[in-house]
Amino acid sequence: MLDSKEQNYSPKQAVDKEWLVLMATAKLQGLTTEQVREFLNQKKNNS
């Protein structure tokens, strides 16, 4: 039987959590949301 955490899990929540961690880390480094978006777009285009 799944516990309540596993029952309520969705892939979107995982992405949201990853984005939250990424943005918190970026803020600590002094980066803006726009700088993070540009970096992710460059990384996506280079792969």
UniProtKB/TrEMBL annotation:
Per UniProt, residues of the Sin domain are 6-44
Task: State the source organism's domain of life.
Answer: Bacteria
Know the name of this protein? Answer: Anti-repressor SinI
The record's annotation in PROSITE patterns points to: SIN (PS51500)
Phylogenetic lineage: Bacteria, Bacillati, Bacillota, Bacilli, Bacillales
Q: Which GO biological-process labels does this protein carry?
A: regulation of DNA-templated transcription
- Listed GO MF terms: protein dimerization activity
Q: Where is the signal peptide?
A: none
Known InterPro entries for this protein?
SinR/SinI_dimer_dom, SinR/SinI_dimer_dom_sf
